[in-house]
Amino acid sequence: MPVLGLIGAPQLAAILVLGQRGLEELYSARNTRALLVAGSREVGSAYYPVVAATHLAWIASLFFLIPPDALILWPLIASYVALQILRYWIIANLGGPCQSADAAAATEPEDRQPLHRSW
Strand (E) positions, the chain? Predict the structure, then answer.
């Protein structure tokens, strides 16, 4: 049931997902700082703000593009929740710091060969 016709379940979901991503960004920034202090170097930092802003803008656009009285598809909600649980389980079991930015270990050689073959 929409509140004043402006906010419904889709808008609340968008706010919750934006909040989740915001907390993940804070956690990621903390882990990146710890890796840099430990001697790692950050690679690809020039494009990361564009990727993050685009992702957050896409989620925020859902707030405005989906009508407040849109039909709730419970199987999709259940799938999303299950995938989030699986995602956090994977992150927890990877061990070590998890971050969005790419940080290369200080012991990694600069001229390392790619992991795939170029045919």
Answer: 41-43, 102-104
